[in-house]
């Protein structure tokens, strides 16, 4: 007897539905943003899969690009895709019909798409053919990125594209008020705010390693600043380096996530991407403050992770960061202004830093994954019930 959930290819079309119990539903997440060095989207999907497996009857599969077709339903599955040269592990699927067939074979009851590129349209096509709901999660501000890299004409074109794409989804999730307002501003109406969460058990002040500074050759009495994330242009890691130079030898900056980034500063240490959350928590908790110069964050998951480790956060007043960071848990500074960043850091260390650390941890506790995924599950349930009611009304009319 074939193993439950196994794929078979003996039908005329090569597609036989996977059998799912009458009280179960199958959610499939699809995204391009899933590589060995991916950031918040990957951590969201892994945390979501672990939580749904333990806490709900919703079957869950994450379908992402990989070197080959691999994996089993109800887990992390890969779809054979072409590697992007110098793309840090990211891949682009090119076989669209094969992708649609693989997605259809999973017989999803709901599809969530985590990026707005070509897989979004292919997933929409499968959803419409199967008459199931499709959800888009706006994890990245593509229009702002296009505007900053290519100019205003590219930003305008990206906004038109996003407005057309997201209008086709049954629900669009925004991780912050800032992104929800931008989507509404380009005419997307079916938007709901779904904030992300944090693993407050792994990311904890107790993860601190008192020997870390000695291991890295950093003075024990240095005020250790840290940033973790992809060191892509919109993160403005150079501003962090410049500010640390201005602060002088008493301060040291630890940049996590970009071994290719080579700042010429004696008080800056660069470490590679940390795939293990426990190791990332160890590094964060061993520092004195988290600094973030990015101006296009749609949420800032790593900010929550730093606060859960008991770190005050100093962040640019841009994107969604001010929704998480205020004077209670740290401070904000003028974006693209390293001098203002340096002054803000100095101001933090003149305050009762221990009180700010406690406030940061307390705020993170209100953003646990349990609360976030419970809300998300409620949205799925309401969406599927609403569309089922609509389908019934259409059948009654016929």
Plain-language structure description:
43% of the residues are buried. It is globular and about 70 Å long. The strands form three sheets. Strands 3-2-1-6-7-8-9 form a seven-stranded parallel β-sheet, sandwiched between helices. Strands 12-11-10-13-14-15 form a six-stranded parallel β-sheet, with helices on both faces. A two-stranded antiparallel ribbon has the order 4-5. The protein contains 14 helices and 15 strands. The longest helix has 29 residues, at 369-397. Helix 2 packs across helix 3 and helix 10 (301-308) packs across helix 13. It is of the alpha/beta class and 398 residues long. It folds into two domains: 25-197 and 369-397, Glycogen Phosphorylase B (Rossmann fold), CATH 3.40.50.2000; 205-365, Glycogen Phosphorylase B (Rossmann fold, 3-Layer(aba) Sandwich), CATH 3.40.50. Strand 1, helix 1 and strand 2 (58-66) form a beta-alpha-beta unit.
């Amino acid at each position: 007897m074939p193993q439950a959930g196994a794929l078979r290819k003996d039908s005329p079309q090569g597609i036989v539905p996977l059998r799912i119990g009458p009280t179960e539903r199958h959610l499939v997440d699809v995204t391009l943003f899933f590589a060995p060095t991916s950031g918040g989207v990957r951590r969201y999907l892994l945390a979501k899969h672990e939580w749904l497996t333990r806490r709900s009857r919703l079957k869950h599969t994450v379908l992402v690009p990989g070197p080959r077709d691999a994996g089993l339903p109800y887990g992390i599955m890969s779809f054979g895709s072409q590697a992007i040269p110098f793309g840090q592990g990211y891949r682009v699927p090119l076989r669209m019909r094969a992708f649609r067939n693989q997605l259809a074979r999973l017989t999803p009851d709901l599809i969530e798409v985590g990026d707005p590129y070509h897989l979004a349209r292919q997933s929409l096509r499968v959803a419409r053919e199967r008459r199931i709901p499709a959800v888009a999660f706006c994890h990245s501000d593509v229009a702002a990125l296009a505007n900053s890299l290519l100019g205003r004409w590219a930003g305008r074109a990206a906004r038109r594209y996003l407005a057309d794409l997201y209008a086709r989804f049954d629900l669009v999730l925004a991780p912050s008020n800032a992104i929800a307002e931008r989507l509404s501003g380009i005419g997307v109406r079916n938007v709901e705010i779904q904030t992300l969460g944090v693993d407050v058990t792994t990311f904890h002040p107790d993860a601190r390693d008192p020997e870390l500074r000695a291991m890295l050759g950093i003075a024990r009495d240095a005020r250790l600043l840290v940033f973790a994330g992809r060191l892509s242009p919109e993160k403005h890691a150079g501003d962090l380096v410049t500010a640390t130079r201005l602060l002088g030898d008493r301060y040291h900056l630890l940049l996590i996530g970009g071994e290719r980034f080579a700042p010429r500063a004696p008080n800056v240490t660069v470490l590679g991407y940390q795939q293990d959350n426990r190791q990332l928590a160890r590094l964060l908790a061993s520092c004195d403050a988290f600094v973030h110069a990015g101006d296009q964050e749609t949420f800032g998951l790593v900010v929550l992770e730093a606060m859960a480790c008991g770190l005050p956060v100093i962040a640019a007043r841009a994107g969604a960061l001010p929704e998480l960071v205020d004077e209670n848990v740290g401070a904000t500074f003028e974006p693209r202004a390293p001098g203002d960043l340096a002054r803000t850091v100095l101001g933090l260390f003149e305050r009762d830093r221990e009180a700010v650390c406690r406030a940061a941890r307390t705020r993170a506790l209100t953003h646990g994954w349990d609360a976030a995924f419970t809300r998300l599950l409620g949205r799925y349930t309401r969406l599927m019930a609403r569309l089922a009611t609509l389908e019934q009304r259409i059948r009654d009319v016929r």
